Amino acid sequence: MRRKHISPVAVLAFACAISAADAASPVRPKLSVFQMHVEEMARQRGVPVEEAVRAVRDWGVTGADLWFAPEQLASNAKMLSGGLVPATLVVGMDLAHTNDIARRDAAIAYAKRVGSPRIMLVPGHLREGEDRDTAWAAMKPNLADFLRCAEKAGIGVDLEDFDGHTVVGSRVHLRRAFAAFPSFGHALDTGNYHYWQEDVLAAQREFADRVRHVHVKDRAADDPTRSVAAGTGIVPVRKILAHLDEAGYAGWLTIECFGSTNMWDDVRDSAAFLTRTWHAPEDGAHAVGFKGADPRATQLRAVAKPPLRVLFVGAHPDDTDILCPAASMRLVRSGARVKWLAMTNGDRGHQFDDSATLARRRRYETLQAAKITGIEEYMVSSTSDCHLVPSLEERAKMTKVIREFKPHIIVIHRTGDYHPDHRAAGQIVMDATYLSCVPLWAGEYPCEEGLIMPSVFFYMDRFTAPTPSRCDLVIGADDELHQASEALACHESQLYEWLPPEKGLQNAVPPASDHAARVAFAQKHWIDPVHYGQAKKYAREIAQCWPDGGAPKAVECFEVSEYCRLPSDWERKELEKAGFRFVPHELAPREK
User: Are 28 and 60 in contact (CB under 8 A)?
Assistant: First the structure.
């Protein structure tokens, strides 16, 4: 091939163009993410971990904060094999009460083997009734030992304001630790200081020369215990980043969203926020190079409220489809996060199928129904149909659901009902709702500090003992009945096989080939009686909600439990945004 001659002028022009492009490109931060976040992304999306790793790399994340625990090592390996590099290794110890030399050596050796430059040490929690100063005195020699061994291996060690129950868990305690051990670095967590009502900017200024790692965590406006995507909450993340930049920080910015119910989106949005914000002016302007970016976007996101989270619970895999489809769909359209939970797998309700076959069928039916209604997740318990009892085991299982999803509102059957599973479901939810906020109950499912007890609403029913249902709020369902019927029609094992003989309809069931007739059958015999029936039964209350007329012909009504927390003003506004109307009478709060 003949080499083409390029003039010096062309070379100079090309070099200038490259320089101009570099100057216009945003300076990308070093982004990391917790290894457990990537796992949770994969779990929530139902995809392999490797796919989640590829996604975060596409978003500009190049590092992973690994966790030193036997059950996490395989996941750590997937992060590294997927191309993420170790940003730090989180190691938990109990150095106030013991010096576990074997664990210390194993952690340091693991950090060295995977190439982690630093260890973030969580050095131990206070025991019940333990004096912090006494625990600190006992911890000091063990801290010195850990630090000496890590430094010998060439690995830095950082401390974080982990929480108020750790021996070193606040600005005052960190100040004492840093004075005693000058070589400790600081893992600055943007959300922890805020949660413990400390001035994060003051702490950042005080420890500026020690910051070696940063966890970027934002907090929800309505619930400061809950993490949200960076830039969408109430923590001054933009100011913190600006101050870090001013101080010359060039280390990792780790995305932290523990407890997120939409981890994929929260990690993605956090990465985008950090990328456009790093090295950007503090006043909200974006870095050069992001064409079409509106400087107002992040300002609007910073005051955005988190979505309302509502958990609708039924005893069986079709109860929610019948009792609350309109409310659920209206909430989803308003931006709320909605989950349905069946507390049994429904494996007894059939004339011919064996239990294993029926459980599989009913699980498939719920998945099909969820696609039509747009429900985020339709969870089905492994508990066998007709076996639900208010046991400690079931109470703990429901506690786990509450602590993980953190619903603002739970909707459930009343505790008086014809079906034992319905009665048990109501009792279990009522018990777990309160106990979910008791940290020492069900300790295998960690209770985050400040977890707020959900409000509990009841479905309407026809029973009057011990008391009839009370209509406290209502939502119109006229426009949702057909879609609700389409979803309910997915429960073929029930609507067209098990239940018709009970109603004397076995000869009226349309053939499987006539889908439209089957949907009409579901609406006529299950959807309409509930929705039009409630409109008739609670006509007086509904008229109060639509005093100027125009009340819907079909509705879903709910009772607010007086035994749990009443809905907050923000929750009421979010419900009203979805179309709910509160009956104008006073709700009775639970006495404290």
Answer: yes
d(CA 564, CA 562): 6
| H or E stretch at 65 | strand 61-67
CA distance 421 to 315: 6
Distance from C-alpha of 340 to C-alpha of 70, rounded to nearest angstrom: 33
Residue 499 C-alpha from the chain's centroid: 36
| 543-551 CB contacts, 8 Å cutoff, 24+ apart | 544/583, 544/584, 545/474, 545/581, 545/582, 545/583, 545/584, 546/581, 551/476
Hey, what amino acid is at 246?
E
- Asked if residue 121 lies in contact with residue 88, where contact means CB atoms within 8 angstroms, the answer is no
Average pLDDT over residues 89-101: 93
Average pLDDT of 211-222?
Answer: 87
Burial code of 468-477, b = ≥16 C-beta within 10 A, e = fewer?
ebbbbbbbbb
DSSP states of 476-511: E-GGGHHHHHHHHTT-HHIIIIISHHHHT-TTTPPP
In this structure, what are the phi and psi dihedrals at residue 68, rounded to the nearest 5 degrees?
Answer: -90, 100
- Where helices occur in 310-379 by DSSP H, the ranges are 319-323, 325-333, 355-373
Sequence-separated (6 or more) residues with CB below 8 Å from residue 229: 218, 257, 265, 266, 267, 269, 270, 273
Q: How far apart are CA 150 and CA 111, in angstroms?
A: 9
Question: Which sign does the torsion angle of CA 461, 313, 358, 347 carry?
Answer: negative
Contacts of 531 (CB under 8 A, 6+ apart): 326, 477, 481, 554, 555, 556
The string of DSSP codes covering 185-247 is: EEEEETTHHHHTT--HHHHHHHTGGGEEEEEE-EE-SS-TTSEE-TTSSSS-HHHHHHHHHHT
- In the structure, what pLDDT confidence band is assigned to residue 168 with cuts at 50, 70 and 90? confident
The answer to whether residue 279 scores a pLDDT higher than 80 is: no
Q: Is 264 helix (H, G, I), strand (E, B) or coil?
A: helix
Inter-CA distances, 16 with 13, 19, 27, Å: 5, 5, 19
